[in-house]
Amino acid sequence: MEQKYARIDFYKASPEAVKALIALDAAVGRLGLEPLLLDLVKLRASQLNGCAFCVDLHSTDARRKGETERRLYAVAVWRETLFFTPRERAALAWTEALTLLPQTHAPDADYALLAAQFDEKERVDLSAAIALINAWNRMAVGFRKLPVA
Fold this sequence. Notes:
Elements: H1 10-13, H2 15-29, H3 35-49, H4 52-64, H5 69-74, H6 86-99, H7 101-104, H8 108-117, H9 120-142
Helix pairs in contact: 2-9, 3-4, 3-6, 3-9, 6-8, 6-9
């Protein structure tokens, strides 16, 4: 496997772009969704996108907020466990649907799960959170931002 090295520091290369992402991140954090739910969503999207930096960051953040190691390890196989609530399962399914959009086309079945657990505002708020973590993943993967050992 090819060794990966950071390409550029996108924080330094375009502080304006990063400030916009940070501002959106802060806004999403104020929308009222549960912080641990957001961490699970960020972790799952980051796993799907192959973002090592973000997987490390969001699993660490979730542990600091009280998430268990067992559930964090199971996020990658959440469909095969009973560790997650119906609301978390709906959020994880929607995360996969939107993150893998070219393959999934946001299926009606996943939307029905979402609608059963989240009101209209929460559906939009969750979708914004998913869009944002996908943006961060693309920055980190594209510019090879790596976790610090």
